[in-house]
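Hey, quick one: can you model this chain's 3D structure?
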Amino acid sequence: RVDRILIKPNLLEDVPPPCTTSVECIEALVRYIKINNPQAQLAIIEGSGGCGTPRAFQALGYCRLAENHKVKLVDVDRCPLVIRRGEGALAYPRLYLPRILFEGYYFISVPTLKAHTITGVTLSRKNLIGLLPQKYYGGYWHYHRSDVHRVGVNQAIEDLNHYVNIDMAIIDAGIGQADSHLPGGRPCKPPCKKLVGGYEAWQVDRVGSKLLGIDPDKVAHLAYDHNCK
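Sure thing. Here's the predicted structure for all 229 residues.
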């Protein structure tokens, strides 16, 4: 029943999985959607952190996927933006975000399974940081969305998940990266060989955290007491 679907992988840099969401995972999702609704309009959106997004799309096979399956690729740094405002924001009472997020698309966050050296884990909720345009949220250091480190990464995650609703979360846990979110991090051994999916991103991420052996209640943006207030 869904005709417009927007998919957000984690393409931090132009490096292969498990640091990034595998194109095979996204292609399987696209194929499944097309089988069940051949008329669905699909788009993949990303704002890479350590390289230009077009470079990541090309290097990781997303350009081929887009051409083969008639999927639109959206670069956060080259698309129309809107300003969103929210009361009670922790870090960003006003945010510039891609306009497509608010044009009636069903939004699926598809991160790879990774630990994170600052926030503990980087899963479907933290994946939204890649929606911040570099023009407004780069410049704190070389990372293209580095302003989140200025204001506090966990605070930025909370604000982004207030502004943007994740309709479905699917963690690509085919391999997993156990000790770092950066290129060169240690792959899970043995590989996890799982997908974790659901309609409540917070719950999905808590399961993903446990797969990495990390207590989700010790992850600030996943802690039970914090999110159930």
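One thing worth noting: The mean pLDDT is 95.
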